[in-house]
Amino acid sequence: MEKPEFVYVTYIATSPEKVWNALVDGEVTRKYWQHVNVSDWRPGSRWEHRSADQDRALRLVGKVLESVPPRRLVVTWAFPADEAREEKHTRVTFEIEPVRDVVRLTVVHDRLEPGSEMLKGITDGWPKVLSSLKSLLETGRPLPKLW
Predict the structure, then answer these.
(1) Which secondary-structure segment (H or E) carries 131?
(2) Mean pLDDT on 53-59
(3) pTM of the model as a whole
């Protein structure tokens, strides 16, 4: 059985550099995602997705596979309990492309298990997160609390 993939495309009135920064700067992700992404963003490095509250709970982990600022970021993506199980890792690819005076952001989340908690979570989560990102970059305000 082929594994499903989730594809989301949005257009944002901003620059590729600002989209890139919004993906990798934990202080910016805190605003629109209510989570902090932590890494040095070099290929082979670990990345963490932590709650933005005082608990700073570890929600997701992975490795940076590709990092080409400000155009392309590819990371593995797993629940912390599955960190040592490579077969449980999914992959997220962010493509940032200038199109005239805007940016086309394409997010492809693949290697997903059919019916998995990960697939259910990202199907609801990515549209919320990326809509909030777009709002933040275009208006200076993210969407209200998502979770």
Answers:
(1) helix 117-139
(2) 93
(3) 0.94
